[in-house]
Amino acid sequence: MGIAKMVWSITKKKTAVNKTVDVVKTTEVCVVLDHPQQGEKITAPHYTFRVGVSGDIERVEISINKARGQSCRHSVGYWWYDWSGYKSGRYQAEAKAWAKDGQVFTSESRNFQVLGEKRTTTKNT
Question: What is the pTM for the complete model shown?
Answer without folding.
Answer: 0.70
